[in-house]
Design a protein that fits this description.
Strand content: 15-25%
CATH topology of the largest domain: Porin
CATH architecture of the largest domain: Beta Barrel
Strand order of the largest sheet: 1-2-3-4-5-6-7-8-9-10-11-12-13-14-15-16
Shape: elongated
Distance between the termini: 97 Å
Oligomer: single chain
Number of strands: 16
Number of domains: 3
Radius of gyration: 44 Å
Structural class: alpha+beta
Number of helices: 33
């Protein structure tokens, strides 16, 4: 189409276009004219304004224009570029249409990008001159930044050096670079801007923000102070004042002065009340400085009054911050209350977190669906969701729902979610509470590494890691970390209004040191440390609890009970003290009082870990249980060439807090040179225990022997923490030699013992025994014992036992071994190693080596020795298992015999 033809066409349509502008032509007629005109435009026509933008400038509706192939934005770029050729007038029309709101920013931006991407050879329509490219890129940046498409603006800015952009594009590009945290491009843009306008205030304000973003708070503050002087341009005085106030607020925030920042935002908002962004910044400032709930409520009210003031993302961020703050308040409220009311606030937070997650997901979908910059916002939505899920992890743990917290963590991990350090720590706590410290340790370590400088020393996360190390047998690492905590925790606070103020964290670390000594089998050191701590701080609940626990583990039940009763008077609502009191009552045998206090404690704080652990221990101690002792040996001809025996007891749970019904059964067989014997005996009995007293009685029936129908009884009394007394009677003794059973002989046994307990490491025993045989023989025995633990560390224990025994029997001709007089002295050394530990589950190996001398009347003296190797498995409250091998040498009637044996012991609560 020639230029003359084009002029004629336009001239002929001038009247019609004027009618379009006047609004006297229908939309359909407008579109028909547009299509007629567009058919005459050859794709190669250059230098003429695009019909679509001419029509748009004169009022054609956007809906009608969108139906044209020339404006359709989802057509291929090459097609759009060919259909809408670049020209100065076309560019002008595009900008006019955009300013008038007749096309969207996305449509305008797409056309500008198409012009930039249009193919062509030098000298043709598709090639932009340097000046044209500068204008197109500058307008594209301005439109993208104005529409909030900051990533798009930065991408466009990377196509053209800031020095080659128009002045009006530098401000939007600097803003876009700042919003996308591209400080390099931000700095380049500001340098170009300052070079062109060295005295202008706006680039200096942007420079101050750039310095803040780069960490140069002092430089930003200097610029802010300089800009705070009154503007020399009265017409822009208010705008300049507002901009400087915003800068001052940002500098104050970076400098850790939230009150000054809030004052600056308040003043700026008063000057420009229509500026919702200033209100947003003030609300976020409040949220970051302890008033998140207030900030969120204010933002919601503002959004209801003025829709669009806050984006969905901004509201969701404030909501997450508010919920996080409410969670902290709920935890504090829980710790100050008793009963069901203590967790009401926590439950409300959990419910609101569910609602917030649902709203967040829905809002994110809506925002991304209508946002051309969805990719950038998607990252922000994902980060927000991670924060909210991390808060939920913590809420579940604090609510006493570790299993739910672990399930949530596993789902987040499966989705590849990168949790913040406090989310990892919450998951680690949940795993530790579920007796999975081996899985908790790497999470605690990851939380510490990720927390970095944001994690103060000390912190609860470090405490949790120390205990997790200890619970997995990594004692050296626990000791090293605890030492670090002590080094970084001075007794007095460094920054205080007055000198000499005590550091509360020092108290926690000191108590932790003593507890770690106690938990790693060093009770003597722990007792000395707690004695010092309780003397310095007698009302400290943690120290008092540790001192009471130390008395329990040192086998002083009365002293422990006295300590916890005193603490109950001083701190009647302290959960740890109440738990310790219940456990001390159980140790002392006061099961009824323990049950009542435990039930009260479960009602008041049943969601806490320590209360759940206490209740598990109480059920295991007071419930039904099975105990089995089995042994077998060969080689001791004086007693039996082969023998085995299994003793078992099945006990009911406590009845009325004092009574148990039990059933005892003994099965055995002995092979001797005078014959073989099988023995089976069952007994049904009743046990009563109250405080220091324990009494048992049973009716027994055996398969053979003169005393096949018999009774048995026992009476124990704990006179004090030091003295233990016991007396027993068995109408059909288990100690009867196998040869006596083969001969049809039985025996009644009477015994009494006195024990003196110094502590868990030292004990002395005296025992008297009499066997009254049915053949008229009577054998009396006396035994003395001293046990001492010399070394006690987390992994190794060494103790000794010294025993002396003597016996006397009537001089009768018996078929069984019956010396008229004999005596022995033996010393035994026992070494025990901890090979594996996982929470309350442990595996030990132990070796016992004993040696001494045996003297028998008429045969003189001879050496005796024994060697015993065992494994011991402790599975918390589930069961304990011991088994092993033994070999010993002993002279009988002057003949040395070597005996080899195996043994097994099992103790298991039935619950």
């Amino acid at each position: 189409m020639s230029v003359a033809a084009w002029k004629a066409l336009v001239k002929g349509s001038r009247v019609f276009i004027q009618k379009i502008a006047g609004g006297t032509v229908t939309a359909g007629r407008k579109l028909a004219l547009y299509r007629s005109l567009s058919q005459h435009l050859a794709p190669s026509a250059r230098g003429f304004p695009s019909i679509v933008y001419v029509l748009a400038a004169f009022g054609a509706s956007t809906a009608a224009l969108a139906q044209s192939p020339v404006i359709t934005t989802n057509a291929p770029a090459a097609d759009r570029g060919a259909a809408v050729a670049y020209g100065a007038q076309a560019h002008d029309a595009l900008i006019v249409a955009r300013r008038a709101g007749r096309i969207t920013p996305t449509q305008a931006l797409q056309q500008l990008k198409d012009w930039l991407a249009a193919p062509g050879s030098p000298g043709t329509l598709g090639t932009l001159s340097e000046a044209e490219r500068q204008r197109v890129v500058s307008d594209a940046i301005a439109i993208a930044a104005g529409d909030g498409q900051f990533a798009e603006a930065v991408a466009l800015g990377r196509q053209q050096s800031p020095a080659k952009l128009s002045d009006y594009a530098l401000g939007p590009l600097a803003l876009a670079a700042r919003r996308t945290h591209d400080t390099t491009l931000q700095g380049e843009t500001i340098r170009a801007w300052r070079a062109r306008q060295p005295a202008a205030r706006e680039p200096r304000i942007h420079e101050a923000f750039w310095r803040l973003d780069s960490g140069d708070v002092a430089g930003a503050k200097a610029l802010s102070d300089a800009l705070s002087k009154d503007s020399k341009e009265p017409a822009r005085q208010v705008e300049d004042r507002v901009a400087v106030l915003e800068l001052r607020a940002a500098v104050a925030r970076a400098d850790g002065q939230p009150l000054q920042a809030l004052a600056a935002y308040t003043e700026a908002g008063a000057l420009r009340p229509e500026r919702r962004d200033i209100r947003r910044e003030a609300d976020f400032l409040l949220a970051d400085n302890g008033a998140a709930s207030t900030a969120f409520e204010d933002a919601e009210a503002t959004e209801r009054a003025h829709p669009g003031s806050f984006s969905a993302l901004a509201l969701s961020v404030l909501q997450q911050k508010a919920l996080a703050q409410r969670l902290r308040w709920a935890i504090e409220e829980r710790d100050q209350r008793l009963g069901p009311a203590r967790v009401v606030a926590l439950d409300k937070v959990l419910a609101d977190q569910d609602i917030a997650l649902a709203r967040l997901d829905a809002a994110a979908l809506r925002a991304n669906a209508g946002n051309a910059n969805a990719d950038g916002d998607a990252d922000a939505w994902r980060a927000l969701r991670v924060n909210l899920q991390s808060d939920r992890l913590l809420a579940l743990v604090e609510r006493g729902r570790p299993a739910d917290a672990i399930a949530l963590y596993n789902s987040l991990r499966a989705a590849g979610t990168d949790l913040p350090f406090y989310g990892l720590a919450a998951a680690a706590r949940a795993l530790a509470q579920e007796r999975r410290s081996v899985d908790a340790v790497p999470l605690y370590e990851a939380a510490v590494a990720k927390g970095g400088a944001d994690l103060p020393m000390p912190d609860e996360i470090y405490f949790g890691l120390v205990y997790a190390y200890q619970d997995t047998g990594r004692f050296e690492e626990a000791e090293a970390l605890l030492t670090r905590l002590e080094e970084h925790t001075p007794a007095l606070m460094r920054l205080t209004p007055e000198a000499g103020r005590p550091n509360g964290q020092y108290t926690d670390v000191s108590g932790m040191r003593a507890l770690m000594q106690l938990y790693t089998d060093r009770p003597a050191a722990a007792q000395r440390r707690f004695a010092t701590l309780t003397q310095e701080a007698p009302l400290n609940a943690g120290y008092a609890f540790g001192a009471g626990l130390t008395e329990r583990l040192r086998e002083h039940p009365e002293a422990a009970l006295a300590r916890f009763e005193a603490q109950a008077a001083d701190q009647p609502y302290d959960t740890s003290a109440r738990v310790g009191h219940v456990e001390a009552l159980l140790d002392a045998g006061w099961f009824g009082n323990a049950r009542q206090r435990a039930e009260s404690l479960v009602a008041d704080a049943g969601d806490t870990v320590e209360v759940r652990d206490m209740e598990r221990k109480r059920r295991a101690l007071t419930g039904a249980r099975l105990d089995v002792d089995a042994e077998a040996s060969r080689g001791g001809a004086a007693i039996a060439s082969r023998e085995w025996r299994i003793d078992s007891r099945l006990s009911s749970g406590l009845i009325n807090d004092e009574w148990r019904v039990f059933y005892d059964q003994s099965l055995g067989r002995g092979n001797t040179d005078i014959g073989n014997a099988n023995w089976a005996r069952g007994g049904l009995g009743l046990s009563w225990q109250r405080g220091p007293w324990l009494a048992e009685g049973a009716l027994q029936h055996a398969n053979a022997g003169p005393y096949r129908n018999s009774v048995a009884g026992r009476l124990d009394y704990r006179a004090s923490d030091a003295w233990r007394l016991s007396a027993t009677y068995d109408g059909d003794s288990k100690e009867l030699p196998w040869k006596a059973r083969v001969a049809g002989i039985g025996a009644r046994e009477t015994a009494a013992s006195v024990g003196y307990v110094v502590n868990e490491a030292r004990r002395f025993d005296l025992q008297l025994q009499r066997l009254d045989f049915s053949d008229g023989n009577v054998r009396d025995g006396l035994g003395l014992g001293w046990r001492e633990r010399w070394i006690s560390t987390p992994r190794f224990q060494l103790e000794t036992k010294l025993e002396a025994d003597t016996g006397r029997g009537r001089a009768l001709d018996t078929p069984y071994f019956n010396p008229s007089r004999d005596a022995s002295v033996q010393a035994t050394v026992r070494a025990q190693w901890l090979n594996w530990k996982s929470d309350d589950r442990q595996f030990f190996q132990a070796v016992e080596l004993g040696g001494g001398s045996y003297h028998q009347a008429g045969f003189g003296s001879g050496p005796l020795w024994s060697l015993r190797y065992e494994h011991r498995w402790n599975f918390g409250q589930k069961f304990t298992l011991r088994y092993g091998l033994s070999i010993s040498s002993h002279p009988y009637d002057g003949v040395r015999e070597r005996q080899r044996g195996v043994f097994l012991n099992l103790s298991m609560p039935l619950q």
